[in-house]
Structures are given as C-alpha cells and as structure tokens.
Automatic annotation (TrEMBL):
This is RAD50-interacting protein 1. GO terms for biological process: endoplasmic reticulum to Golgi vesicle-mediated transport; regulation of ER to Golgi vesicle-mediated transport; retrograde vesicle-mediated transport, Golgi to endoplasmic reticulum. InterPro entries: EXOC6PINT-1/Sec15/Tip20_C_dom2, RINT1_Tip20. Transmembrane segments: none annotated. Belongs to the RINT1 family. GO terms for cellular component: Dsl1/NZR complex. Pfam families: RINT1_TIP1.
Amino acid sequence: MAAPTTTVQTMNSLTDTLLKPVYANSQGMDSVSADSGTLQDYLLDFMEKEVGSDLKSLKNVGHLLEKLREENSVLEEQVLTDASSMPPKVSAALSAAEEASCSVEDLLQREALISKRLHQHLQDAQPWMDKLDQTLHKVNTIERHVKYLRCLQHIEELSAAVQQCLMTSSVWEAIRAVDSMAALDAGLNQSGCSHLQGFLQETLHFWHKIIKDRLTTDFEKVLIQLHWPFIAPPIQTLTPTANGQEISSQLELLVSQLLALQNSDDLISQRALASCQGVPATQPASPAPPPPQAPPLCLPIQIMLLPLSKRFRYHFYGNRQTNTLSKPEWYLTQVLMWIGNSKTFMEERIQPILDRAGATTSAMVELCRGLLSLVQEKVASDASRLLYDDALFCHLVEEVLQFEKELRGNHSFPAVLPGLLHLLLEDAILQKWLTVEKKMAVEKMDAMLSSEGAWSSQYKDISDMDELKAPDCAETFMTLLQVITERYRSLPCPSAQLKFLGLQRELVDDFRIRLTQVMKEESRCPLGARYCAILNAVNYISTILGDWGDNVFFLQLQQAAVSLGEEGVLGGLGVMEVGRLASLEGSLFEGLLGLLDRLKGDMMGRLLEWTMREITEKVRPYGQDRWLSLPPQQDQSTMTLSSSACPMMLCVRDRLLNLHQVLSFSLFQLAWQGLAERLDNVLYQEVVLSNHFSEGGAAQLQFDMTRNLFPLFGHYCKRPENFFKHVKEACILLSLSVGSAILLRNLLKESMEEEARGGAAAGDPPPESALNELGVYCLAPCDVLILLNLRASWPGQ
C-alpha cells in the first residue's frame, strides 16, 4: 500500500512544479482567478499527453518531475535576480547601450567643432567668392561681346561675299551665301539680340531682293521668248526657233537658281505674313475663311503667275465691265481656260526641270494653287456681297460647284488640297445656302403640285419605263432632292453635309403632308385616277428612299452622324435606335419610311374597301341562288357559269384591269392579293356558309370558282387558287363522294368525342392528316364538320 501513497505524493509535487512558474509570473495580476480555468485545462492536457490513461505509466512520474525541476531551475537563473545583481543578458545589453551613448556624445562634439570651423572658413572665403563672381561675370560679358562681334563680322563677311559674287556674276555662290544668312537667322530666333537679328534680317532681305529681282528679270525675259503666258490655246510650230536650245538652257538654269533661293524666300514671306496679321487688306474684298495650311508656292511658279495675276485683277476688280456680280462664270471660266492652255507647257518644259532639280512638287498643281488663290479671294468677296440677293447667290453657288467639279475632274487637282468649297462652309454663307435651298424647293413643290400634268406619268405611253407609274410631281420632287444631293455631295465637311440631309428629310416630310392633304380631298373616290396617282407617288418616294438607305454615300453620312452626335439628324432617337444606325442595321430615312408606309397602307386599305363594297353588292344575288335544288352534273349537257355570277365576275375583271392600269407593279401585286383575300372571305361567308348544297349545287359552285373566278387572277400568278383557300377547300369538301364524306364525318366526330373524353387513343393519326390527304390545310376540323353538314346528299335524306 506504500506504492500508491508515494505515487500520489509524486503527482502532487508534479502539479506544484507545473503550476509554480505560472503563478510566479502571475503575481500582482488581477486576472489569475479569471484564468484558473485555462490553467486547469493546460494541466489536464499536459497530464493526458505525458501519462495518458494507462496506470502503469505512473511509475514514470518521478523522472518527469526531475526533468521539470531542472527546466524550472534554468528559468530561475535567467529571470530571477538577487537584490544586488541583474540577469547576465540584461546587464550586457545595458553596458552596450552605455557605450553607444558615449560614442554618440563624442561624435556630436566633433560635429559641432567641425561645423564651427567650416562656418568660419566660409565667412573668411566670402570676399574671395564675391570677387571671383564679379570676374566670371565680366568674362561672360566679354565672351558674349566677342560672340556678338564674331556673328556681326560673319554677317558682314557673308554680305561682302554676296556683293563680290554678284559683281562677278557668280549667282550660285551668292545664293549659297544668302542661304547661310537664312540659316543664321533661323538660329537667332531664340536669342535676345533683337538689334543683331534685325540687322541680319535687313541684310538678308536686301541681298535676297537684289538676287530675286535679277533672276526674276532674266526669267521673265525667257518666259516672254517662250510666249508665256498662254492666254489663248498654244499653237504648235513645226519649225523650232534658231536659239531654242539656248533658251531651254537659260530656262533650266534660272528655274534651278530660283528653286535654290526658295528657303530664304519662304522665310521672308512667313515673317512678312506674321507681321501683317490683323492689318486690314487694301483690296475691297473681305478676307475669305482660311483654307487648310499648305506649303508656300514654288518660287518659279510665283513669278510665272505675276502676269496672270495682273490680268485677273485688271479685268475682275474695279469698274471694269467684266467685273459684275451677276457673272461669276466669267472669271471662273477664264481661270479654267488659263489652266488648260498652260498644261502642255508646264508638263513638258517646267516639270522636267523640277524633277532634275530634285523638287517633289508638281508644276501643274502649283500653277492651279496660285490661280486658285486669286479665285478664292474673289469668290469670298462676291459671296459676302450677295447674301441679300437670293438669285445671284444661287447662281454663284452653282458656278462654284461647277468650277470645283471641272477642276477636280478635268484637271486632276488633288482632293487633299483646298479648292473653293471651303468658302461655302463659312457660317453666314452656309446658312444662307440652306435657307435659299429650302425656299426654292418649297416654291418648286408648290408649282409642281399645282401644274396640270402633276398627276400623270410622263412615261405612260412607254410600258418598259413605266413600271413604277410615278406621277410627274413625285418624279420631279425626287429629282429635286437628287440635285440637292449632288450639290452638297462634294462638300469637304460631314457636318455641313448632314445639315443638307436634314433639309432633305424636312422636305420629304413636307411633301408627304401635302400628298396627305390632296389624298383626303380625293378619298371620296378612291378608284379615281388621281387617288391612285397619289398612291403611286407615295410608293415611288418610299422606294427611292429605301434605295438611298443602302447607298454608300448615305451610309457614310449615317456613320458620320453617329460619330459626331448630330442632334439635327439623331434628335429624338433612343439609345437602341442610335445603336442600330451605328451597326448599319437601320437607315437615316427609317422614320420617313415608316410614315410613308403607314400612308400607303391606309390608302391601299381604303382602295380595297371601296372596291370590295362594289363587288360585295354583286355577290349577294349569287349567294341567293337555289343551290339546294340544282340538278346533278350528269343531268346537264354542258356546265356553264351561273347567271347570277356574271355581274360579280365582270366587276372583278373590270376592277382588276383598272387597278393594273393605274397602279405600279408592286402596288398592284398588293392590291390583287388583298382583293383575293377579301373576296375569298366574302364568298365563304355569303355563299358557302349561308346555303345548303345538293350534289349539283356543289358541282356548280366548284365550276364557277375553278373555271371562271380563279382564272381571272391567273393572269397575275401561276396558282391563283392558293389565294382562295377557304373557297377552294369548301368546294373540295362539298364535292366529295357520299362514301368519302360519310367516312370523313365519322372520323371527325369520333376524334372530337375522344377529345371531349380526355384525349385521343395513342397511335391514332390526327384528323388533320386525313384532311391533308384531301387537300384541306386551312380549315379546322370543326369548320369541316360544318361544311359537311351543309351537304344535302346524305343517305336517307
């Protein structure tokens, strides 16, 4: 019994040993009691891990106790201290901190001493630094003066070199010296030496003018010998001139030298243009809107343009009779003639010289640009003076558009270079153009609708060209819109083009409203020629607008409208509609097409309703025939059309012929198909469902329909019976043999009874399959039963 007691004592000692360091570290804390549960959990986990549930393992408790006591002693040596000592690690750390603090104090003392010495040294050196700065400033000033004098000396040397070259007729060396001056001038642009730069510019301008004047004089003499300018078409001479070779050599030399002088000339021209900005022009013309930036004209071409410019200003400015606002075609045609007359000379004489000189310009294009500058100034002046005269303004616009067309087409002027159209895009001029365009279009609409032949087709006697049967007013109106399109098509600005497109849409809607007003006046007689002409007009306009919606030009405008967000064109459209336009699923004319289609549908419905009203009156006597008492077919020698059907047939025939004559092909297709559908319903209701039929009556009905009515529509399609589905299938059912009719009726009754009981038996074919075998596809089984009950020839009856 001693062993268990010893084990218990050992366990108690073990527990005290485990808890001793914990409680030792927890003294002075209020949370010991709160954490008692955690300590007990820790103890239980430790015992479970070391001892477990095996009682035999309790003999190892003594070894575990010894191990824990050793660990406890090590911890006490590291943490617990005597009253006069500290832990070794803490003591070492404190010693290192004290040494570091002493080192920092020593460094701070040395830093303060060095800083004091440096400050004293800087104070002692400051007078020397001030003297050195003054000396360097003087050196820099002297150096700038030296550079200034050297630059001035270089300018004087260049000037002297130019003078010496001109005295010895060394033009090439003089040009190179002038180019050096121009390069030096460009280099001095960022400097503050305004006086030096002014002196250089004056020197450059002086020598450049002397060289240019000398070359210009010589060049003009050569051009005179070559009969320039060509005011009239040049005459080809068969015998060359005696000094032709010498003139050609002089021409090439002078053109090459003028090209070499181009850089300095461009520099002087740009500076003169910059200095003149904001200064009013001396010409009476108002300045035109600035065209897109283009490089300066080639210097030889500038000289060649001088006599043409003098002639232009002489004839088309001032009080000359040729200067009249009502005749812009005079100066526009004159410029085109000069371009045409000069083409051969420019391409054969000047262009090869430019190519050999390495110039990348086209002589003909440069000449056109120079002449265009004269025309642009004149057109801008005239346009601003014609804003209050509609007739003359329209004439000017027409002439400008024609000039632009001939310039681009006949003379191959590049599209990237500005012509005259940008002048028409100035706000006041563009707005005036739109206003006048609308005013004249409205006046023409009033005139065309009030003319005597407004509702007759000019191609009515030519069947091949009169498929649409468009009345003259509609064709004239669409021609008017097409002319407007051709006028603004070549404008270089999509935004301006969209303004004209908005005007066209407004005009189309205005014309639609006018057609609606006239239609309401003619609606009392929808079968009249004018009513049908209005319907043809609506269909014609709708067809043309649909074609325009697929046109490349209008598709490009559509994309431009979406990208620019033009409110005038896209106003009122939602996000979905704009998205459809962006993906090219819709068109800019969709809204108008919807309105036109609605008007066309209303007019077509009224036309068919009026026609069917007349035909229905003729159908009633036919439906009142004695279908029940007609003899069988075998009792008749020959089947003939029912006498009561003759008025109906004649009315249908006459109306079809009339509609075919007055309606366009597409409208007539809609008309006769709509008429057939309505007539099918009327015959089915008024004749078939309103009577009982004997065998002879059914045969007569089938004869009247298949041999008389359907052939009336056979002129316009191959299988007209397909448009009379109710009547055709009714004739099939009424003409069935007695046995087939009985079997079909029984089948339908059984099918309906099974459906009433809850569904047909699995595997049984539906009744529709039996009806399809007979050729009945439109009528429902219940309708077939009704028709079978209209038969009078049943056994026992």
